[in-house]
Design a protein that fits this description.
There is one protein chain. The protein is an alpha/beta fold and 212 residues long. It has a single domain (3-207), classed as Metallo-beta-lactamase, Chain A, CATH 3.60.15. It has helices at residues 36-48, 63-66, 69-76, 87-91, 93-100, 171-180, 201-207; strands at 3-9, 14-20, 25-29, 52-57, 80-82, 112-113, 119-122, 125-131, 140-144, 149-153, 156-157, 160-161, 190-193, 199-200. It has a six-stranded mixed sheet with strand order 1-2-3-4-5-6, with helices on one face. Strands 7-8-9-10-13-14 form a six-stranded mixed sheet. A two-stranded antiparallel sheet has the order 11-12. A hairpin with a 4-residue loop joins strand 9 and strand 10 (149-153). It is globular.
Length: 212
């Protein structure tokens, strides 16, 4: 059975996720670890639980979600796996870091691109990929059906939605992504967002002011 561990990293309070199962293989999703303390926290959990990182997955490539890419590559020899439409976002990392005054290291280039309908396998776990643009051009979500889990990046939040005022964002596209993709899931699916607390599809369907 797939298990999940959450870390909240960097000045943007970004949620980094580890997914792992009984085989001890794990995937690292959106590593926001921005300094040596946060890097140590992540690596200590992996070591303590004898996990074997096998993939570095990104829901999207905004700076707060990729600050740990180089550390993950240097430590575990993993390269980012993204949707190709977010490649330019990833490539702008150092420029954005300069604008925000954030210390960052260049990210390695992606090794693989994921698209709508793809399946990601690790250990005994299968993740379905859905394409959910709007917050960024290439935002994707990862769905684990056995535990009814959605790793949603910055698409849908508890009582809110992702911002759309960054380059490549579009409000109507984001609303459409949520309604036509995420809202096809059952109410009891849990959404783990890129920031803030978890929520459920059912709660957001009924109460989210942007979507009701």
């Amino acid at each position: 059975m797939c298990e999940l561990q959450i870390f909240t990293f960097n000045a943007f309070q970004e949620n980094t996720y580890l997914l792992f199962d009984e085989t001890k293989e794990c995937v690292i999703i959106d590593p926001g670890c921005a300094d040596s303390y946060e890097q140590q926290e992540l690596s200590d959990f992996i070591s303590k639980n004898k996990l074997k990182p096998v993939k570095l997955l990104l829901t999207h490539c905004h700076i707060d979600h990729v600050l740990g890419n180089k550390f993950i590559h240097d430590t575990y020899r993993l390269l980012p796996e993204i949707n190709e439409l977010d490649l330019t976002v990833l490539q702008s990392l150092m420029q954005v870091a300069h604008l925000y005054g954030v210390n960052a290291e260049p990210s390695p280039d992606p090794i693989k691109y994921w698209n709508e309908g793809d399946e990601i396998k690790f250990g005994n776990t299968l993740l379905d990929v859905i394409f959910t643009p709007g917050h960024s051009p290439g935002s994707i979500c990862f769905i684990e059906k056995n535990t009814k889990t959605v790793i949603g990046g910055d698409v849908l939040f508890y009582g809110s939605i992702g911002r759309t005022d960054l380059p490549g964002g579009d409000y109507q596209t984001l609303i459409s992504s949520i309604k036509t993709k995420l809202f096809t899931l059952a109410d009891d699916y849990t959404v783990y967002s890129g920031h803030g607390p978890k929520t459920t599809i059912g709660f957001e369907r009924k109460h989210n002011p942007f979507l009701t």
